[in-house]
Amino acid sequence: MHLETLRLYCDVVRLRSFSRGAEQNFVSQSAASQAVQQLETQLGVVLVDRTKRPFVVTREGEAFYTAARGILESWEKAKTEVAAVKARVDGTVRVAAIYSVGLHDMSRPMQRFMSRYPQARVQLECLHPHKVVEAVLTGEADLGIMSYPPAERALSVVPLREESMAVVCHPNHRLARRRVVMPADLAGEPFVAFDPGLTIRKAIDRALRQHNVRVSIVMEFDNIETIKQAIIIAAGISILPRRTVQKEASIRTLAAVAVAMPDLVRPVGIVHRRHKPLTPTAARFVEMLQEPSDAAPAAARPRARSGAAVSG
Question: Is 128 found in the same domain as 261?
Fold first, then answer.
């Protein structure tokens, strides 16, 4: 016995017509008649007296009609309740983000999200890039937010933006007052670089090679915050995403100057497990992160790019 058969029976009884009940359920009149006969066989009673014109529903048929309607109503109620739970935005979204994104970009959207959805909360953990990927793949995080998201078959990537890069130096450095730094201006400069294994380091090195520029690497670090501290003590200059030095530039502990390398950008995206559907809460948080933000610099523009290896 199937719900479709119960619905067909109820329509036949309600409309007092096999033909109209069949039409309501997109079957032939003979199929409707056979379905009712099968019900009668299964129940061992006559539901519809066909010897009369129009047919008459028996007492057993009326009792079964009432019961069948209750079953169908309960089914519809169950579907509505499940849909409501599915659409409910509550619970916790676990987010793993690289340090530069977690420290500089997550506070405002997290507050906005939890204000909009009081029953939801965002749990943020800042990790190194490879740990972000690991947390997502092992299920410790629902979402990962990182630069240069990797092109792995087990991951889906949602592009967020591309961040323009800037030459970052001490405010007293000779380049600090420039409007634009040309690549040739960097030649021979003491340079505080990212670790060689990071994709952002490879991208910067590639851009410098394209302009035939050699810098003098004096230090190498695996994160932006430590690079900024090295520049503050005048250990050298660097090339960093402009949005990561906005605070220091505003209070003049660092200077951030546009660099004439328009193709050098840092892509940032969201990663999640490809074959694990996002919860409604996680999906809604992704949608919010994609919303235009008044705080976002104009140069940080959304654009799809293919993934590469992991970086800072």
Answer: no
| Domain match, 26 and 152 both | no
Cα 279 from chain centre: 10
pTM for the full predicted model:
0.67
Summarize pLDDT for 54-81 with one digit per residue, the tens.
Answer: 899 999 999 999 999 999 999 988 887 7
**Is residue 243's pLDDT more than 70?**
yes
Distance CA 169, CA 249 (A): 10
pLDDT one-digit tens code per residue, 200-216: 999 999 999 999 999 99
What's the domain range around 103? 91-162+267-290
Same domain, 280 and 206: no
Instruction: Give the domain-ending residue among 87, 114, 148.
Output: 87
Contact 94, 143 (CB under 8 A): yes
Q: Six-digit token pair at 38?
A: 């099968």
Exposure letters 98-137 (e unless 16+ CB within 10 A, then b): bbbbbbbbbeebbeebeeebeebebebebbbbebbbbbbb
